[in-house]
Design goal:
2 helices, 48% strand, 22% helix, six-stranded mixed β-sheet
Length: 125
């Protein structure tokens, strides 16, 4: 198995750079059986996930990653769980939002696709 931390870093760099510049470009990372849970709402399939991401109510966004952790998720295939926390700057706001996101990446034709994706904003108590 490739170094999962290197793969996770490469994936998240690509994911968040693309999210911040061209959210529609993320559709190719998902499949028809992929699932995104966005703030508790499940969304199934690449097209529906892309529709959700492109319809979010902001013009500009910038992700600032704070932590990145990865673990293998199967003893039989080179899949992995990637956990990310960070700050989200929306429309040049001076008050960044804290977020967490977890991906399950599954190998496919020499690359990986997102099988599961869970996103949450983290609010203080």
């Amino acid at each position: 198995m490739a170094d999962i931390n290197a793969v996770a870093k490469q994936f998240t760099d690509f994911y968040y750079t693309t999210f911040d510049s061209n959210r529609g470009g993320l559709q190719s990372l998902y499949r028809d059986h992929s699932m995104l849970t966005w703030e508790g709402t499940p969304i199934l399939g690449a097209a529906a996930i892309a529709e959700k991401l492109t319809s979010l109510p902001f013009e500009k966004v910038q992700h600032k990653i704070t932590t990145l952790d990865a673990q293998p998720s199967s003893p039989s295939i080179a899949s992995m769980i990637v956990s990310v926390t960070g700050l989200l700057v929306v429309d040049d706001s001076t008050n960044p939002l804290q977020f967490s996101q977890v991906f399950q990446l599954v190998p496919d034709a020499g690359s990986y696709y997102v099988y599961n994706d869970i996103f949450r904003l983290n609010y203080g108590a």
